[in-house]
Amino acid sequence: MQTPRDWLTPETLLMLQTIDQKGSFAAAARALNLVPSALTYRVRQLEDALDVLLFDRSARQARPTAAGQELLREASRLLDDMDAVANRVRRVATGWEAVFTVAVDSIVSRSVVMDLCASFLALGAPTRLRLRYETLSGTLAALTSGQADLALGVVPVPGLSSDIRHVIMGGPFRLCMPWPRTTRWHRPPSR
């Protein structure tokens, strides 16, 4: 015996969205390249599996019932989640991380940080940046605890772990990151 899970497929959810967007079974059937009777049959099968009425068919328009509206809301969310999973998998396959967290010490000018972010975003990378503003030892602590992938404006301390690489930014401040990284690094465009 089939369960509701067997019927709630991406194709079925897209079919329901099309019916709602087109406003009638006939228009949705045309958009989906189906005959109206085939579309009606699929919706009835789904309604039977869920034991609910999804569309009010009393008029020429197909209006979602309260249960239908709830399913449409969830369908939209589920389809967006499926797209997000596919995008995350694609980013992993290409070496890009979904989110890259940067701990920035309060001594670093925010305008400098925004310029660096703008340069990164100009690369068209699929990675979202998350900034954490820290003070004093909090910047290095965020990096070493794994709460950040990169730290800006860190004052070097004796005994810095050998798996932390650092680059001098100017003055006593450094950029630090765990090494090795699995992230794909691209050299920023030269200015």
The CATH homology group name of the largest domain: Winged helix-like DNA-binding domain superfamily/Winged helix DNA-binding domain
Count of discrete structural domains: 2
Helix content: 40-55%
Mean pLDDT, all residues: 80
Question: Which strand order do you get reading across the main beta sheet?
Answer: 4-3-5-7-6
Describe the biggest sheet? 5 strands, mixed
Report the sheet-strand fraction.
Answer: 15-25%
Can you identify the CATH class of the largest domain? Mainly Alpha
Structural class per helix/strand content? alpha/beta
Number of strands: 7
Terminal CA distance = 65 Å
CATH fold title of the largest domain = Arc Repressor Mutant, subunit A
How many individual helices?
Answer: 7
What Rg is obtained from the alpha carbons, in whole angstroms? 26 Å
CATH architecture of the largest domain: Orthogonal Bundle
Q: Give the assembly state of these chains.
A: single chain
Order of helices and strands: HHHHEEHEHEHEEE
Can you tell me the residue ranges where pLDDT is under 50 for at least 5 consecutive residues? 179-191
The best one-word shape is elongated
Explain what you see.
The protein has 191 residues and is an alpha/beta fold. It folds into two domains: 4-92, Winged helix-like DNA-binding domain superfamily/Winged helix DNA-binding domain (Arc Repressor Mutant, subunit A), CATH 1.10.10; 97-178, 3-Layer(aba) Sandwich (D-Maltodextrin-Binding Protein, domain 2). The protein has helices spanning 4-7, 10-22, 25-31, 36-50, 66-94, 110-122, 138-144; strands spanning 55-56, 63-64, 99-105, 128-134, 150-154, 164-170, 173-178. It has a five-stranded mixed β-sheet, covered by helices on one side. Strands 1-2 form a two-stranded antiparallel ribbon. Strand 6 and strand 7 (173-178) form a beta hairpin.
